[in-house]
């Protein structure tokens, strides 16, 4: 999924809604949430507490996340081939083994460009978005800069759905959605066009940090995977209901 719109358009709030929904609809062993927050000094994802399998904020660590996911993709593809299965669903039905669904959720994706890692990130993203969703590894990219330099044609073609908030003009709408229209959305925070084949105008539900912490307070911590120790730091600061970091 691509989430695009101007600063303060509502992108991070939508990500928070999506993350909360994913956590409420999957058990801790059934989901791997990888947070990549490229906004400097951002606390947005940390507010969730120890739900992250991995949480990173540097382009170099983002490259590790991508490479680890590609490695996992290849492993999954290999297992499917060995079992003679064409899809994850078929594999899971045949073997009774379920792959955890992995979600790589990136806020301010555009900011990873301009770093020395940008080529590695772009190439890796291409590979990942080409095969990932079919093997249970999903990518959600939020960015203010959805131009071709940041989201190249191949990545773009692989992103199955787009959420576009109100933009300044028809040209920007065309870059994001392929046509004009998002510039005429009413000036209501959280109002956006959701495009996944068909298009719908939607209102993103607002979720405060307090609410998401209350909803997730009884959740078991995720198991850290990438060995960067990040999640442990977060766990040590784990939240009490209503507490603000
Ligand atoms: N769906 C929404 N409903 C109500 N207010 C919202 C909504 N989305 C965003 N806002 C308001 O706009 C502010 C900026 O939203 P944010 O998601 O941080 O923007 P972005 O990440 O696109 O810069 C939020 O702090 C909130 O006050
Ligand atoms: Mg934001």
UniProtKB/TrEMBL annotation:
Gene3D superfamilies: P-loop containing nucleotide triphosphate hydrolases (3.40.50.300). The keyword Nucleotide-binding applies. Keywords: ATP-binding, Nucleotide-binding. Pfam families: FtsK_SpoIIIE. ATP binds at residues 5-12. The keyword Amino-acid biosynthesis does not apply. Residues 1-174 form the FtsK domain. Coiled coil: none annotated. Signal peptide: none annotated. This is DNA segregation ATPase FtsK/SpoIIIE-like protein. It comes from Alicyclobacillus cycloheptanicus. The lineage of its organism: Bacteria, Bacillati, Bacillota, Bacilli, Bacillales.
């Amino acid at each position: 999924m691509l989430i695009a719109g101007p600063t303060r358009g509502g992108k991070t709030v939508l990500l928070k809604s999506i993350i909360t929904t994913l956590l409420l609809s999957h058990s801790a062993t059934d989901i791997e949430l990888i947070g990549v927050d490229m906004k400097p000094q951002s606390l947005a994802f940390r507010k969730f507490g120890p739900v992250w399998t991995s949480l990173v904020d540097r382009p170099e660590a983002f490259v590790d996340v991508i490479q680890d996911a590609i490695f996992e993709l290849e492993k999954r593809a290999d297992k499917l081939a060995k079992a003679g299965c064409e899809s994850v669903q078929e594999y899971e039905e045949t073997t009774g083994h379920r792959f955890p669904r992995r979600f790589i959720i990136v806020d301010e994706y555009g900011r990873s460009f301009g770093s020395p890692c940008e080529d590695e990130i772009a190439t890796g993203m291409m590979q990942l978005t080409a095969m990932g969703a079919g093997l249970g590894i999903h990518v959600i990219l939020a960015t203010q800069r959805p131009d071709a330099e940041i989201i190249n044609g191949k990545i773009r073609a692989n992103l199955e759905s787009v959420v576009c908030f109100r933009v300044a003009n028809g040209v920007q709408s065309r870059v994001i959605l392929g046509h004009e229209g998002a510039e005429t959305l009413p000036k209501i925070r959280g109002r956006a066009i959701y495009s996944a084949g068909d298009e719908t105008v939607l209102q993103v539900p607002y979720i405060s940090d307090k609410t998401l912490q209350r909803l997730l307070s009884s959740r078991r911590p995720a198991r850290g995977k990438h060995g960067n120790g990040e999640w442990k730091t977060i766990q040590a600061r784990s939240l009490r209901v209503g507490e603000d970091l």
